[in-house]
Amino acid sequence: MNIVHEHRSQSTAHWLRQFLKSSGLAKFVAGFLASATLITSAQEQANIKLSWNPISNPLVAGFNIYYGETSGVYTNKISAGMATSLTVSNLVVGTTYYFASTTYSTAGAESAFSTEVSYIVPPPPPGVQLSVTSGKQFVLTVTGTAGHTNNILATQDFKTWAVIGTVTVGAGGSVTFTDTNAPSFSRRFYRVN
Known about the structure:
Blueprint: H1 10-23, H2 25-31, E1 36-40, E2 45-51, E3 62-68, E4 76-81, E5 85-92, E6 96-104, E7 117-120, E8 127-132, E9 138-143, E10 149-155, E11 162-168, E12 174-179, E13 189-192
């Protein structure tokens, strides 16, 4: 665990070292981000749920979660109290975030930062709409993150998938792909990845 250098009186620094030794912060760090779930929206923002192991030390009054877009520079702070999970909202897709935590006492003393954990917010999975032309061709409209490239795959039996095309989502957030070979098959199933 790294100790953040702060200007404190000798007695306060001694008390903080004792607090860190007895707070169980190491257990917290081990469980920090033990589970993370990502929820994305069409606005290219995401929420992430962080969870960690509880601490039963009577000196610990709660947890602070810090995060930012630069390693070691935390521009955001959320006090979680004694909760063991927290949802961080409005994270930007494609951005790397760095998280660290501290514990604090009822007197307001705060521990050093935990080990830093980084997380890149992935783009949402592509959306697909299917329509059929009068000539029995299938047109797939793929929506997703602008500039993201997707493979269009097709199968007849759900066992063997073949890449039948590659598309890049445009600035408007969508792109269309026409399967001109669709009339040659009695049935055809698609997926995008």
